[in-house]
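Consider the following assembly input.
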Amino acid sequence: MNTPDPRPESLLPLPPATFHILMALAEDDRHGYAIIQDVAARTGGALKLSAGTLYRSIQRMLEQGLLVEVHERPAPELDDERRRYYRITAFGGAVARAETRRLADLVRMARASGFAPEGA
Amino acid sequence: MRGSRAYRALLRLYPASFRAAYGAEMCAIFTRRRRDASGPFGVLAIWVDAVLDTLRNAAVVHWDILRQDLRYTVRTLRRSPGFTVAAVLVAALGIGATTAAFSITDHVLFRPLPFKDPDRLVGLWQQESFRGGGRSELSPANYRDWKSASRSFQSVGALWTISKNLSGAGDPARLDGSAVTAEVLPMLGVQPAVGRLFTAAEDRDGAPLTLVLSDRLWRARFAADPNVLGRKVVLNDAPYLVIGVMPRDFHFPTRTADFWTTLQLAPDDFEDRTDTYLQGLARLRPGVSAGQARAELRGVAARLERAFPDENAHITAAVLPLRDLVSEQSRLLLVALLGASLCVLLIACTNLANLLLARGLVRRKELALRTAIGAGHERLVRQMLTESLLLAAVGGVLGTLLAIGAAPLVARLVPTSLPIAEVPGVDPRMLLVSALFTIATGIGFGMIPALRGGRHVDTDSLRDGTRTGSSRRAERLRSTLVVAEVAASVVLLIAAGLLVRAMWRVQAIDPGFRAEGVLTLRTALPLPRYESTERRHRYYSRVVADIRALPGVENAAFISALPMVWRGGIWSVTIAGQAPEVPQDSRQASLRYVTPGFFETVRIPLLRGRDVSDRDTNDTSAVAVVSDSFARLYWPGENPLGRRFDFALQERTIVGVVGDVRVRGLERDGSGRERSSEPQVYLPARQVPDGNIIGYVPKDLAVRSSLPPGALIPALREIIARVDPQQPISDVQPLADIVEAETAPRLTQVRVLGAFAAIAFVLAAVGIHGLLAFTVSSRAREIGVRMALGARAGDVLGMVLLRAALLALAGVALGVPLAFAAGRGLQALLAGVSPADTATLAAAVVLALGMTLAGSLLPALRAVRVDPNTAMRAE
């Protein structure tokens, strides 16, 4: 029904929650609660995704083709059967890289304009 | 676990599909968070967080789905433009008709009058306590006594509808207005736009004459000049001081009033208690009901009846809310209109439901495919509701525009006798109503197919080779809807047909004169300038002589009031020595003064004797020309010429007999009792007594000529201006228009109801066509097999047509009894046409059958053309 636009740039700029979820999934497949924990740890507790924000972001990202749900699961004793696991797609990776590039460019321009943060 | 149950309930704000996918995990996360929270405040914070989070994100998820569904809907609708256009048009017609009918009904019947606390405004009437309780206006003396004796009212006033000649500001003109006591305008609670209202001192007898203008008159005659205050304006030769201008949307007591002046009652106005002409208006004290006020006034009236047993015999009081002065016929008509529009809406909704059902069946494969890739039942229902709501919304916008466009036609049903504007403005309430109808329509016609389509998706549909036929139950539902449509359109056809018959019946009534070729106009002769009968005679003679000299003019004459224009002037008749065979009630006749030649001008046949003559003056014996029914009533089978009778304060001798005319109009007199006009008595214009008897002075001119009105009118104006340059001319119209105006309200009724019936008719035909077209295409294989097995084209044609005929007959069988009930409800509008009128019923049934045939023709032909090979290979 939704044919994703093949150009990663078409989804930029990414909502912060989306970008964080992509980062959380960069190395490992994770379930929802693990994503929340990962984001909180990465940001030093500054960003705690709520359940609603997390899952409606995930739903949209699934439709956009940034994520897929994975059906092979960890060893049963480690798994809670209610959990669904998500994996970043190649397209998801491309979008994350495009967003990083966009932000990096932005930071470079800001620095050139004399907006270097103190101590940096 | 109680907390988690509450959280699960909270999650119901999300769409079911979202809940199904993520609900369990969200609950788990919530439980874990709550477990980790410390202290009651921690738990509270978690809950507040959860509620806010759910509200925000549920809205986003819903919005996401709606956007998806809308995109999808627009794409699919674009692929089937025929369906889309049909659905939108059908919705627009239904919503437009209902909105138009509702806004006009609301405007006339329900909306409060545009005055302050309108519920407490009442009209006061004298009412006969016998003979059906006819209402009449008040006499000045009764008004005065009721006012001083009653305690129920905060304020009581009186008014009198008047017409006056305006001169001195542009062309002389005849204007309608109202003479009011000082209480009346303040009672309504409307402030003047400019200046002030009347003071109590100004309605005393002999006080200086003052004038308040309507906004319309102020703009038309005084160029909206704010300095108009203090100007003198001449009405009927008397100077009036302008003291105020009312706001634009002020209409009182009727829509046509252009000015207000003070009602100054002189002492001798109070002498005759039987001379009733004042409209009483009062404001109830807070907390007093109209019923309580009536009870009090009835006590007062009973005392007055004892005090004045002759004049006030059988006179009691009526107190009616001002809002209820809409006539029974107008009310009935508007209710009928509302009913008709609901019928149209119902038909439109059924049609749409049918269109969508058919579409849902055709789309079964697509729906099955979507189910297979994981779309839940709820998502499909939601998708289909979005589709129907979108169609209804587009139809609603179109329908509202339609309703606004139709307002001028429908507005002609607004009676002029009400203090409200002609066309209801487009107000937010009307838009709200059409929005409601739109949503109701969308849900109404979307729900059935959505539920059916959503529930009965079977994945069998995916396999190739499955027949695309419809299930028997769906077919039955669709047939039922079509039968309902046919029934509703039969009801409307019969109702409209009955009104057409009623109009024809009234149009066929012989008015008693020949109106074609007669032009009429009014030269209201102002008093006191024309108080003298001889002075008026000179005016008539010169005007009539000059007009008769015009080439192409056959004849011309004056009368005090043309038939059907003024319904009053009824006097009682006394005949010395007459045996009392004629009941007292019937001893009445209408009085008109005429100049010689009137009967010939309008072709009222002279049956015996002679016309009035210029030699009949106040110095010769008083003579009269009477109508045939008058002569037959009092002297049946005898020669009436030379007989005498007492009438209008004098004894008169009959010198001629003429044919009867419908003085009071073509129809019954509005009281609901079938009653033809009273017998007529015509007296010579030169025998009008000198003095002030406004109503009877001949002023209406009738001219019979072969000239077109466009050529005749300037010549008449010139002649009248030559005889009296200050004399205004008003009410220029062909006599035929006056007769036609008698049936004009009926024509409007027929047009409006006819339009509704036509819409319903077309919609029902579309419905039948849609159903049969669908049946034929879904049964193509069966038809193909039959034809391969040797069925002839005629058999196939017969099969389709038989089905159409069965649907139509079922609809007619259901519709006719309903129409009969509706017709009985409309009886007061039917001028005696029976609600079971055979011709109308037959015509409606034939039309319904014809419509069925027309609707089924194309599908039937398509069935005949089914090629057995193609039909079977397609499977």
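The interface with chain A takes residues 18, 21-22, 24-26, 28-30, 32, 49-50, 53-54, 56-58, 60-61, 64, 68, 72 of chain B (CB under 8 Å). Ask yourself how this observation constrains the way the partners meet.
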